[in-house]
Amino acid sequence: MPLRSKESYHIEIYEMARDIWVECPNCGGKAIVDTDGFHALEKSSYTIRLTCGNCGYNKYLDQVIARKDPRQKKGKVLVFGAPIDPFFHLPLWLQAEFEGNIFWAYQMDHLKLLETHVAAKLRERNQQLFNVKSIGARLPRWMTTAKNRDEILKLIRKLKTKI
Q1: Cβ(94)–Cβ(143) below 8 Å
Q2: Which pLDDT belongs to residue 126?
């Protein structure tokens, strides 16, 4: 593991919201929420799809991002920063309890980013002091403190075997 981490202060959680691994509501296996480019904000309308490779469960969610009137709430509320997927609100596949808190990741890339951040003894912001939307800036203290480092890394290794 590298001793330094820079990337986590340059990436926002929205960028990780792609191919989200969730628990299938039908069979309990691993399903994938395909976000159709939402993570890159490439367009204003997205076709979000939930697919389970185990049982074949399929569901679409048409999500319109741009609104004509900003005061108007339309469609489903997106939830970021919780152990559920932002679109269907299903439990994430990669989650585990740690001392009364829930450690979670959207998919393997997100888990690897968290692993690099937690393992690093030096976390560099490099002129990102006020980027409070970055993943590194939003992580809770229990996850980033040095006293929990070994236990969190052990938890991450355990989640990697869940694939």
Answers
A1: no
A2: 63
Quickly count: other Cβ atoms within 10 Å of residue 122's Cβ: 9
- H/E stretch holding 31 reads strand 30-34
**Residue type for position 64:** V
Q: How far is CA 119 from CA 3, 97, 142, 155, in A?
A: 7, 19, 14, 12
Residues 118 and 144: beta-carbon distance below 8 Å: yes
The owner of tokens 């229990």 is 142
Task: Report the helix count and the strand count for the chain, using DSSP H and E.
Answer: 4, 8
Residue 155: CB atoms within 10 A of its CB come to 18
- pLDDT tens-place string over residues 98-136: 999 999 999 999 999 899 889 888 776 665 555 567 777
Does pTM surpass 0.85? no
β-strands 122-123, 4-5: how paired? parallel
